[in-house]
User: What shape does this take?
Amino acid sequence: MTDAWHWKSACEIRDAVQGGAVSATQVAEDHLAHIDAVDGQVDAFTQVWRDKALEMAAAVDAKAARGEPLGPLAGVPVSLKELLCTRYGKTTCASKMLAGFESPYDATVVKKLEDADAVFLGKVNMDEFAMGSSTENSALKTTKNPWDLTCVPGGSSGGSAASVAAGECALSLGSDTGGSIRQPACLCGCVGLKPTYGRVSRFGLVAFASSLDQIGPLTRTVEDAALALRVISGKDPMDATSADMPAADVTDALTGDIAGLRVGLPREYFTDALNPEMREKIEQAVDVYRAHGAEIVDISLPCSNYAIAVYYIICTAEASANLARFDGVRYGFRHPDAKTVQDMYVLSKSEGFGPEVQRRIMLGTYVLSSGYYDAYYLKAQKARALIKKDFDAAFEQCDVIAGPTSPTASFAFGAKSDNPLEMYLSDIYTISVNLATLPGISLPCGLTDTGLPAGLQLIARPFEEATLLKAAHFYEANRGFDMGRPPIA
Amino acid sequence: MSKITESDVSYVASLAQLQLDDATRARLVKEMGDILSYMDALNALDTEGVEPMMHALPMTNVFREDEVTPSLPREAALKNAPLDDGAHFIVPKILEGEDAS
Assistant: This one.
């Protein structure tokens, strides 16, 4: 073995393990060694499950030795965001509140990955309770961007993106409430897919904003994202909001044929708010579609300017309700000084939740409080309907929407952490997709002059992941350059 | 002038069951004021007659068969409890007065 397995794609590893060219154990050992070599700098992993990984890999190898057919993720090394419930290890949500939490059950997606013969390497960092855009809100550690260790990996799935970008795993599962898969994927130069709301079961995903949250894959190739989606999607009796649609078989859609594809460019996404260098990268990406016969359509999403306001009303309102469960009774942190039940609630929450989580609980409580409900929450729900309507109208003119994922490339630690509103504005291009329940993907589209990745975002109609992935795969195959590897590796 | 006052912030904190120190309260007056002012941009959007989007998916009444299925064993449910007696979650005494036991 001369070539390192840790830079192989999930599909390559799966094929090699299924074909007997390599054992799952070898692949796992190679990845664990690479984690040992680079994670001291990247700090993506919050828990490395060495024993568990080797045990799972050995089980895959034993299955192969018995001549049994191997699953679609045979031997593929995976990292899991800290908010996905696993019976093994801890599920901390990167919060002091859940520091020692051991889930009594596995999330549905975790079970599906295991059934597909994937190998879990451990858990990765995130913004506390998925609230943030830089992973700086973690109570556990500071994850760095593998392309520049002085810059943030994005967030909230920053550990997922950094671990994939640094070659520490081929696949990570993250969650996306307002861009938390796509934005870190963009900043770390990998592929991040946010499926349609309802496509993937949320059972075992610690809830942030239940009408917006979706689990999705971060990978280095579009094909790998398609493979992972096929494994994790589908109706789940444990999640009443999971859609009764057949599991997406999208790998077949990666035909490389975009004849007749209509690509919409929302004029509201190409304004002064978009960094000129990012704009140039996005326009070059659009040129790839144009040059291969796609029809480029000028579209409008008139309510785009309201999206951030709508999002931060709805997500904080839902968060304030969801996080009320952390009361120190059944699980999580209980303040040792609490003498009364009321004290137990107040002291445990005040000590257990970090500043950004408390800020969002406060905002959410305010917009739901008597006298403000109509002005904020109800108004936002109406505006959300209009935002969805904008997309419905746009998708009569085009099949996919193309634009930036983030207004800028990655930024230095501390650059936005003192100004919550400025941090919120970095979600401008991703949040509408969650509000409108659509599938969206971010894929690398080049490096800036300072060597930081830029990301192209594509958006499709609900449950049309096949169209989305087909368009993404076409760009990836025809962009005409290789993203290379981050200097860390 | 900020959108909200210190007493507003204190009131919301009591609803949210959070205890704020003076510095945090002062910081939140400013931050929440800025964010809420930003949200006021929504007032410019005409939502007259618009049906609010209360659900992400157009689904209603997701039922399952009324069958008994296994649930979480008691030990598993109590595993993460800060305090328990093997059968119950234990919390500080709720009612004032003499201990009945």
